Amino acid sequence: MISLTRSPAWEALLEHYRESCDLHMRDLFNADSERFAKFSIQLGDLLFDYSKNRITQKTVTLLMDLLRDRGVIERREAMFSGGHINVTEDRAVLHVALRQQDETPVYVDGENVIPLVRQMLKKMRDFCDHVRSGEWKGYTGQPITDIVNIGIGGSDLGPQMVAQALTSYVDGPRPHFVSNADGTQLSEILRNLDPRTTLFIVASKTFTTQETLLNAGSAKKWFLSRAGNEEFVAKHFVALSTNREGVQNFGIDPENMFEFWDWVGGRYSVWSAIGLSVALAIGMDRFEEFLAGAHEADVHFRTAQPERNIPMLMAMLGIWYNNFYGCGTQAILPYNQYLSRFPAYFQQGDMESNGKSISVDGVPVNYGTGPIIWGEPGTNGQHAFFQLLHQGTKLVPCDFIACAQPLNPMGKHHTVLISNFFAQTEALMRGRTLAEAKAELEAQGLAPNRVSALAPHKTFTGNRPSNTFLLKRLTPFNLGLLMALYEHKIFVQGTIWNINSFDQMGVELGKQLAKNIQTELAEGGRATRHDASTNGLINAYQHMSRD
Ligand code: F6P
């Protein structure tokens, strides 16, 4: 295939960028009263408005020409049908099979995986029912009141974000999450827990991750120091993993292991057994609604034509800003407290997937790939970093997410929240001209010299792009829907950039070096094998940590 930046579709976009980059969205809205209708899509309970972007109909056409040209449609089909699209690890990528709603076979290397998925869901359901009903008892015969998910990365961020997002649906044991190697996190959580009523869920795809095994080992020690008998571990520790042997070696009965498979990527694993802590907290029926919501997004992604396909539009708008406008970051701004971990979750989802500079053919790319993903919930962000979004020198495309119906109605709170939500995207788009700023200052009765001095500071260029996602209500189904749209966006962008979105080799070097340093620290001698800075720091640490 001809290289990305030399392809006619890319060149057409470049030319279009040159001729359209000075257009102001204000003028585009003024010129077309149908712009919102043209550039918005309703999918179930979700309204996706992308009209506040620096695009015309021609931009969308050219972006979708590029999408078709780069084989996104074919690769999408390869993913859904179990092709080994994770080429470096020679694996299928089938988180979509975990949420498939019917029995249509999906083959991985000749084996239909749908029966495996069904069996696992059944095992999760039985277990959840047992624990939630109180039939599953701790070592003193008391029911489980608290669960602690011990994992990191995809084995933590997914269940943690989803459990938090669905807090108002929790009617089972209270979920807690431990991920950090810093023992402070585990200590602070254990401080308030009772070993007799606590269930530990050790979540690790590989069951080799240092932080997780460290935390799990310490949790087990804490438990045994209270329970006093190794036999009781079976009632208080379960594992979620693909590595049966690792689980057994750790001392967890394989009966208490909930399996998933190498075709489920860590950052796409919350739909698998990795979601057990969520299922225990909200019940299996609701967990299955969450899967069904994601499936609705899968069907949309697979069947809607590119010009009306939400993840494809999200992805191609991202390409437009990343590769043509040179934007290096993308903000995700949920105006919903329950979604406060949503940006962090997709920080891993996106940056671990598309933070790559080598193409699938093994050569360095000569164009920008994955953006930096960041964000905080609104309205807090408005009082922190929105200044830069509105008046800074950097263009930051933003995703705004909110729900029409609050789950905790309280006085005027929701009206205030949602008014700010709408106002921000309007302000980013419209801006305020110098003339408008002057008129406003004059209306306040300021002297002409003050008006002239202040007006430039009160001017907003506007023309700053945003997408709006308006959900009817934050339900398990709608959360699944929203998350799967973002997942598919990542897939489409990775395909355009010709990188493998499903490995994460960039995390390995640091892990290896940490192991060497750990040995050195245990030996306690003077560090000499590193660069001067690293040697100096290690030696200073050895000295400073003595008393
Ligand atoms: O180090 C990165 C990573 O491999 C992530 O991709 C993954 O989500 C996380 O570590 C945890 O891995 P595991 O589930 O195997 O413990």
From TrEMBL:
It holds the Pfam family PGI. It is found in: Cytoplasm. Belongs to the GPI family. Pathway: Carbohydrate biosynthesis; gluconeogenesis; Carbohydrate degradation; glycolysis; D-glyceraldehyde 3-phosphate and glycerone phosphate from D-glucose: step 2/4. Its main location: cytoplasm. One of its GO terms (biological process) is glycolytic process. This is Glucose-6-phosphate isomerase. It catalyses: alpha-D-glucose 6-phosphate = beta-D-fructose 6-phosphate. SUPFAM superfamilies: SIS domain. Its EC number is 5.3.1.9. One of its GO terms (molecular function) is carbohydrate derivative binding. It comes from the Bacteria. Catalyzes the reversible isomerization of glucose-6-phosphate to fructose-6-phosphate. InterPro entries: G6P_Isomerase, G6P_Isomerase_C, Phosphoglucose_isomerase_CS, SIS_dom_sf, SIS_PGI_1, SIS_PGI_2. The active site is at E352 (proton donor), H383, K511. GO terms for cellular component: cytosol. Keywords: Cytoplasm, Gluconeogenesis, Glycolysis, Isomerase.
